[in-house]
Amino acid sequence: MFTGIVETTGRIVAVRAQGDEKEAGVRLQIDAGTLSLADVAPGDSIAINGACMTVVEKQGNTFCIDVSRESLQRTAGLDGLNEVNLEKALKLGDRLGGHLVSGHVDGIGIVHRFAPVAESWELVIRAPRDMAKYFAYKGSVAVNGVSLTVNQLEDTETDCLFSINLIPHTLAVTTLKHLKEGAAVNLEVDLIARYVERMLSADGQRSV
User: Fold this and answer.
1) Residue 137: exposure state from Cβ atoms within 10 A (0-12, 13-18, ≥19)
2) pLDDT in tens, 97-110
3) 12, 19, 152, 206 — which has fewest CB within 10 A?
C-alpha cells in the first residue's frame, strides 16, 4: 500500500529482456536517486510510476525489478530509459499524506492539455470511458503514482476528460514536469470508489 506522495525520482538505467520469446518480460535496473535503500531488501515493494513492483536485486544505490509482458502492456513508462517516480511501501504508523494507493494501474490515460495557468499548471487527461464512473469532482486519482485531486470532469460518448491543478512543488519533485500533449500516463482510481462501485453493482445481493 502507498500514499501517492512521491519520495523522489529515479531513473531506469538498464532494460534487459528475460528471454527471446515474444511474450518475455524484462528486468529493469533502477538508479534510486536520493531514495534510501538501507531498509529495502529483495521481496519488498516499491511503486514505480504508480505500479507496485517487487525488488529482486539490490546493489549500492540501484535495484532491479522484473516486469512481465502483461504489466508492460498495461502500464506506461516502464519500457525505456526514463525518469520515474519512486515510493516505498507504507509501514504501519506512517503518515498518510495523499490517499490510499494500491499500486495497481487501472488504465492508461493520454495527456490532452498541459499548460501554465497563473503560478500553477493545468493538466487535462483523457481517460478510458469505462473508468469515468470512478472519477468525482474533488475526488482523488493517482497519475504516474502521484496523488492528485480532480478539479473538473467532462464525460463524452467515447472517453472522460478530467482536469488537475499542479502546484510548482509537485512539478519540481515528480516526473510530471516532463509531460507533453499525447503522452501516456498510468492511472489508478480511488480505492474507496472501486469498492463502492462493486457494492452498487451487486444486483441486490447481500452478504450474510
Assistant:
1) exposed
2) 889 999 999 999 99
3) 206
